UniProtKB/TrEMBL annotation:
This is G2/mitotic-specific cyclin-B1. SMART domains: CYCLIN (SM00385), Cyclin_C (SM01332). Belongs to the cyclin family. It comes from the Eukaryota. InterPro entries: Cyclin (IPR039361), Cyclin-like_dom (IPR013763), Cyclin-like_sf (IPR036915), Cyclin_A/B-like (IPR046965), Cyclin_C-dom (IPR004367), Cyclin_N (IPR006671). Residues 172-257, 270-362 form the Cyclin-like domain. Residues 266-393 form the Cyclin C-terminal domain. The keyword Cell division applies. Keywords: Cell cycle, Cell division, Cyclin.
Amino acid sequence: MPRLRLDAAPSNLMLENRNTMKLTKSTVGVVAQKVQGPSLRPRAVLSDLTKANAVSTNQVKNEQPEEKIKKPSMGIASRKPLQSTNVKKIVPTAAPKAVLCTKKAEPEAYSTKQLPIEDIDLERDNPQLVSYYAKDIYSYLRQLEKSYLIGAQYMDVDGYTIRPTMRTILVDWLIDVHGRFKMLQETLYLSISVMDSFLQVDSTINRRELQLVGLTAMLIAAKFEETWAPEINDFVYMSDKAYTSKDVLAMECRMLQKLDFRLGRPLPLHFLRRNTQAASQILDQVDVLHHTLSKYLMELTLPEYSFCHYLPSQLAAAALCLSLRILDESDTESNELWNHSMVYYSGYTYESLEPLMEKLCGLIAAADVSKFQAVRKKYACSKLYNISTIPHLKSPLVTVLAKRAGAVKN
């Protein structure tokens, strides 16, 4: 069976042409239920590195998903409180002084008094916003993300056989697999996070095992995030049966032991939603296009080895700040675009985000000519507002910032 080379030209990394493709009985049910969208032919991306064969894509027929059976809710009969006839009622002679008719005012945080910021957590009607605990939750997430750091150059170790180009090829393919299974966005980010966390603590992984690591990381992330996760056989099928179910289970145990079952790393999406909520209420100029463009910018960084060490909160803040500048196309000063309130809720000043925004513009400028187009094709559909093809991405602002990062030559 033809295999693909990691170090081959990306034109040799396309999929094998076959006239027919059939799913096994064990996987057709799950794939029919969960898989819709852009077609993706299974392939062994990283299995045999000694042969290079030209391959091409093939489409898989979409089937109508079956209706999922929901378990009926279990009713609980109401009970009347037990009453005792022998209990004597004690009536106080006078009302205690602690009982007041007026409502006590909520305490105000010290930082709120010192900074000219607006409180975005005043809405108490929506329980999903958990307004009472939102500030404490995100303060904890910023502390937690520092305990899941990825090394900036973790592959620069003697004897390490995996190279950044191989990682880029694998992540580009995993993005296609993720889209094929129609999984949550959190699953994709967590898959890359688990993969990088494992690769930096286990330098014995060779080229043939790298694709197995990527598939197993996505399986672990799907179990962590998804309600209906794909089965092991589905991932084996997507690898063109380069591995067996036993190989996936063995790698899963190996990865979980190396990571000590620590999978709860905060994701850029968590911070982006908070930042978007703050910007929409404070700046009053943020809409769904800003949020979608920010997600596109963050996903462009996934295949890039040079971005894996950035904190999720820093990446989310830079993506939103850059989307504000790109879509608004105004010469608004930085203190008005990213005011004290945005600094308070994001945790970063405009000046600290500028170097990262320049690097993001470098990715935008190189996206058109890049040989890895999974993210760009994903965001070129109408469902995501064709955000990867909007003319704003070719504005003079993007060109200038990309030149500062060294991505565009004069």
